[in-house]
Amino acid sequence: MWIQSIVSNFFNIAQRYKNEIAIIEQDNIVYFSQLFNMSYSIADMIINIHDNINSIIAVYLPKSSFAIISDIGILMSGNAFMNLDINAPINRIKNILSEIKPKIIITDIKYNIKLSELNINYYHIIYINDIDINSINNTINYIKDRLSSIIDTDIMCLVNTSGSTGKPKAVALTHKNYIDFYEWATSNFDFKRYDIIGSQSPIFFDHFNFELCLLMIKGVKICIIPESMMAYPIKLLEYIKNKNVSFIFWVPFLLATISNLDLLNNIKLTSLKMVWFAGEVLHPKHINYWMSKNSNVKFVNLYGPTECSVDCTYYQINNLIDSDSIPIGKPCRNTNVIIINDNNQETSYDEKGELIIRGSSLAAGYYNNFDQTRISFVQNPLNNSYPEIVYKTGDIVYKRKDGNIMFVGRKDNQIKHMGYRIELGEIEQAALSISFIKNVCVVYNQQEKEIVMFFESANKLESKELWVHLMQLLPKYMLPTKYIQLEKIPTNPNGKIDRNYLANSIKK
Q1: Are 374 and 464 members of one domain?
Q2: In a domain, 192, yes or no
Q3: Same domain for 493 and 435
Q4: How many domains does the chain have?
Q5: I need a surface site. Which of 109, 181, 241, 264 has the fewest CB within 10 A?
Q6: Are 472 and 500 members of one domain?
Q7: 120 — phi, psi (to 5°)?
Q8: Tens digit of pLDDT for each residue in 292-331?
Q9: How many CA within 13 A on the CB side of residue 281?
């Protein structure tokens, strides 16, 4: 019996649906038979180079059918994949590779020159251009035999954290992490085999790995959304409509942008069944707009750091008024969260504290980084009876009496201004409740002791006008001292507001 059920299921799915579409990539399609044969070829090439299991193999490709083929091939070989960002600075890639030291890198020959800049020689290279399904050395039975020694707590993939200083941390996520999340997701939401997943998540994100699981275990179709369309919301919506996408995971910023531009009046997404979003606070006015245009669509707010494999809490949205805040909800299956104050005591209802995660969603830690693992993955402060590892998120939340958890802000986004402790996220929420404010980002200039608010609006606004509105919503000590109107708030490659860029801009 195989413990590694993700791969074992894929063998069955690929055979059962061999003549059906697995991947849609603009005008190109890949059938399950093609997907299996090419992935098998990749697995064969890996085994011929490195006949071990549970090693890390890197993928240096753009998001594409070839990247999906590579990831599946790596899993079929009994190893773990690590998808890299081809747009990342070469020094960041070098830092990641020097920390992880993968045995093999799968890439396209056109990236040869870029990889040569790394000046490292501890890995082999497999070129995706060399796939030959007619040149196989290892039998299916041999591969199945290799996979029989994989257990569910072995590493399935590494996901590198983004936006941090110094070397990135590679979060080690196991087969069990993803199997458990998949089983929760498919038991709570009506995923069908004929669903078409609109894959917008970057390849180096944990949400992409969940989409990969849906493909391998459920047999759904993955429709790759071209990255270039993120800058053209109207084209993006038309693409989703034309490809009959039924499920999509989006960052809130994109949902807000489409809402602000009122694009759903002319485009009806009739095939869409469910939208997940996570990563940032979304104001109710934006989700209410979406719900008013798509009454049959389920909208779900999820929460979870990379360290807990995809997400650990969720909230399905029903009725909201614009003055509400959207909860991050309640824990997913086999996951629990606790909220503790500065004295390591559990908080009461409506009392703010740091959110701590426990349960099967927790990653194995940071790969090749024991010291950082020991700092972030700690003994449960409420349990002195036996060893129990939990993850400290650094997120400030509180629990309402209905059991739903409300996100307040980052612990490291908490400032002390004029003698008061202030969550910048609270200021942002207040600003977004103003009808003429489209998007907002609040940062703190420590040197000048200034709260700075960047904002988008269709109208040219004076600082005094904004101050008057915010004064009705916030105590005086929380009012921004500086207001900067932008035509468009910048975002990073992940689609999130580029807070670091804005924070650095006010230091110049």
Answers
A1: no
A2: no
A3: yes
A4: 3
A5: 109
A6: yes
A7: -130, 150
A8: 999 999 999 999 999 998 999 999 998 887 777 899 999 9
A9: 26
- Residues contacting 475, CB < 8 A, separation 6+: none
Spell out, as residue ranges, where the chain has pLDDT lower than 50. Answer: 1-3, 163-165
**Residue 434 to residue 470: CA distance in whole angstroms:** 8
Alpha carbons 474 and 469: distance in angstroms, whole number = 9
In a domain, 297, yes or no: no
Indicate whether 471 and 403 sit together in one domain: no
Which residues lie closer than 8 Å to 85 by C-beta, 6 or more apart? 92, 93, 202, 203, 204, 493
Task: Tell me the DSSP string of 368-426.
Answer: T-HHHHHHHEEE-TT--SS--EEEEEEEEEEE-TTS-EEEEEEGGGEEEETTEEEEHHH
Pair 170, 55 in one domain: yes
Contacts of 305 by beta carbon, 8 Å cutoff, 6+ apart = 357, 391, 393, 395
150: domain CATH number?
3.40.50.12780
Q: What is the CATH number of the domain that holds 435?
A: 3.30.300.30
Q: Which long-range contacts (CB under 8 A, 24 or more apart) does 106-115 make?
A: 106/42, 106/57, 106/58, 106/59, 106/60, 106/61, 106/70, 106/73, 106/74, 107/59, 107/60, 107/61, 108/61, 108/66, 111/60, 111/61, 111/86, 114/90, 115/60
346 located within any domain = yes
**pLDDT score of 414:** 75
Report yes or no on 326 lying in a domain: no
* Alpha-carbon distances of 301 from 42, 251, 342, rounded to whole Å: 37, 10, 28
User: Which letter, b or e, does each residue of 152-182 get, where b requires 16 or more Cβ atoms within 10 Å of its Cβ?
Assistant: bebbbbbbbebeeeeebbbbbbbbbbbbbbb
Range of the domain at 341: 336-358+367-413
Q: Which two tokens stand for residue 362?
A: 């927790």
Whole-number Å distance between alpha carbons of 467 and 464: 5
